[in-house]
Amino acid sequence: MRTIKTSFSCSFVLALFIVVACTSAPHDEKMVEQLPNIYPDYVGVTIPVGIAPLNFAMADDSVSCIDVEVKGVKGGLLHSNGVCTDFDIEQWQQMVKQNKGAQLLVSVAAQRDGQWMRYKDFTIHVAEEELHDWGITYRRIAPGYEMFGLMGIYQRDLSSFEETSLLDNGDSEGMCVNCHTPNRTNPDQYVMHIRGANGATMIYRNGSSELLKAVNDSLGGAMVYPYWHPDGRFCAFSTNKTSQMFHTNKKNVVEVYDASSDVFVYDTERHAIVSDTLIMRKNWAENCPAFSPDGKWLFFVTARRQIYPTDYDKERYSLCRVAFDSATGRIGQKVDTLVNASAEEKSISWPRPSYDGRFLMYTLADYGYFTIWHPESDLYLLDLETGLSQPLSEANSDKADSFHNWSSDSSWFLFTSRRDDGRYSRIYLACIGKDGKSTKPFLLPQRDPKNYYTQLLYSYNTPDFTTKLVNNDQVTLKGEVKSDRRIETSVTDNRN
Fold this sequence. Notes:
Elements: E1 2-5, H1 12-21, E2 30-31, E3 38-39, E4 46-47, E5 57-58, E6 63-72, E7 77-82, H2 89-98, E8 103-112, E9 115-118, E10 122-126, E11 135-141, E12 151-157, E13 162-168, E14 176-183, E15 186-195, E16 200-205, E17 208-213, E18 215-216, E19 221-222, E20 224-228, E21 234-246, E22 254-267, E23 272-275, E24 284-291, E25 297-304, E26 318-325, E27 330-339, E28 347-353, E29 359-365, E30 378-383, E31 389-391, E32 401-406, E33 412-417, E34 426-431, E35 442-443, H3 449-455, E36 459-466, H4 474-482, E37 490-493
Parallel strand pairs: 2-9, 4-10, 23-37
Antiparallel strand pairs: 1-13, 3-5, 6-7, 6-8, 8-9, 8-10, 11-12, 11-36, 12-13, 14-15, 15-16, 16-17, 18-19, 20-21, 21-22, 22-23, 24-25, 25-26, 26-27, 28-29, 29-30, 30-31, 32-33, 33-34, 34-35
């Protein structure tokens, strides 16, 4: 397992600049009756105990130095002086823990052209709800279109800035790696895909991995978009014939659509794909499956197939569910529509139920399901007790918000958003209450976030929480990926 330095710590030149530019404490300050414009925007966010320091800089590049003091309502004091804050991790963690359920008061002074300015103080709230997960996993990929470059699956310790590689396509002879999916944030069981000439779907469970043949001829496509059944035996997938095209306007860049797609359940013990005409209808496109936390329901989205590519923007998915019996591995007899988005000329993708069974979060857009390129895509929350569906207004932006997942205790969620610059998707985290209201999201912390995010020419996608470090054997994994050993899958008819 390789450790990757993700933080752009101050170089020698930058450190020398700090020494020259920040030789004294703020003096002769000019009071400014406004909040500081900082990057990232951490003003008024809510954070969990154990999160890495929320370092920041002024958004204005003409600022040569900032002086920051963070004081806890229940005690604790931190101070930083430089071109960006760089709080000691251990001291930060102690102060945040001390102020659980209370506020941190942040005071900022900035120097521009030799003049110090003192801004209005702002607060950071430390939640009562703890984040019990060790960290997160995600894919980082260059935002290319026709071809993919360097990409990989990584994991990040949320209490620090340390990132490690799980698998990148340098390990897999340039193939595409994607969709790393644990079972309810448990890294002892996961699935991920390797696409290419020697592609595979990797199933890791019971301490060992199996590489399935990427494409089953009976399905006519590969296994895509996995989601585990909570008992660990079954995993739902879609199978998709995906195409893309490009726009000439500035609002949208690329469009991804499926000429066809279906949903099925894979039985890991029998190496069998369980097909069912109820969720594999000829004139409909089923997609994005997800099991309910109790395992009794299979959620998915479905849309009437269109004439592609001309009518791509008429493809609108609604949210449905069907019963599932884990004792027999059989699909139920009836499909229920939970949210008829197509009737409102909207489209749903990426349904993700909270692990406590209370809510289901999904992405809503004008059409289609590949919403990471749709500026209008927003996060919505369905109350599974009342049936009420509403936007997560506190979390949404005017850019693409998508690819969300829940923490293991359903108190926190993370998602990707292009709100930063409209081009690259970044990871944001937020707390969600029992009333379904979200706190203001905060950008994934980095040691020197302004330099890190402006220099990182990669997007994050498919993020998820992990309860502990994913401790895979990379030497063995690389060997398996590069070998031609693949397990054949069979297809069984659920109705026979």
